[in-house]
Design goal:
This protein is mainly α. The protein has 9 helices and no strands.
């Protein structure tokens, strides 16, 4: 489930890149880094993942197998899909890719988190900072705003897709994580809703 979830996550990110209507904050950051460095989108994603993992050290976070897989698989899949997919000029196709990409990302998020084999590098950064006495909501919001702003300044695509993703991903993850979480772990997921 972890491998499938990470693969689908990479496919969903590539779909949003191809749609070219706006990316999630971290993906806009990766795209901006790629544009400025000459790296591929996937290589920028992997490089960012590894850099973020270094920030875990002072926070006392410990990666799991899912964390390490996330750091590499998503970027490799993004690059593979981008290489194999032709450019899309049709506006209707771009909108279909955007909506399908957001929905697929929600399912993929549920799968890789539901596998329970370690948070992604970016999620671990958020929880590590939050453990130091800060609200998860505030930490997540601040991180997302900072990386989106930097990504935009570096040339990452920000647009209607960015807004759609920001609005939709929370409810989608809230719905899909319990679908893919074991019965014992599900109690922990739903307990956080109270």
């Amino acid at each position: 489930m972890l491998a499938l979830g990470l693969t689908l996550f990479g496919v969903s990110v590539a779909m949003l890149v191809i749609a070219d209507l706006g990316l999630a904050s971290w993906d806009a950051f990766h795209q901006g880094v790629a544009k400025q460095s000459g790296l591929s989108q996937g290589a920028a994603t992997i490089g960012t993942s590894l850099s973020v993992l270094l920030l875990w050290i002072p926070l006392g976070q410990k990666p799991g197998i899912g964390t390490l897989a996330n750091a590499f698989v998503v970027g490799l899949v993004v690059d593979a899909v981008l290489v194999l997919t032709p450019d899309v000029g049709n506006d209707l196709t771009r909108w279909v890719l955007l909506i399908a990409g957001v929905l697929l990302n929600g399912v993929a998020t549920g799968m890789y988190i539901g596998a329970g084999l370690g948070p992604g590098p970016r999620d671990g950064l958020m929880t590590g900072i939050a453990k130091r006495g800060h609200s998860v909501r505030m930490v997540r919001t601040c991180i997302e705003i900072v990386v989106l702003t930097i990504g935009w300044l570096l040339g990452g695509t920000v647009g209607v897709g960015t807004v759609l993703f920001a609005i939709a991903i929370g409810p989608l993850a809230h719905l899909t994580i319990p679908w893919f979480t074991s019965r014992n772990d599900r109690r922990l997921v739903t307990a956080g809703d109270r």
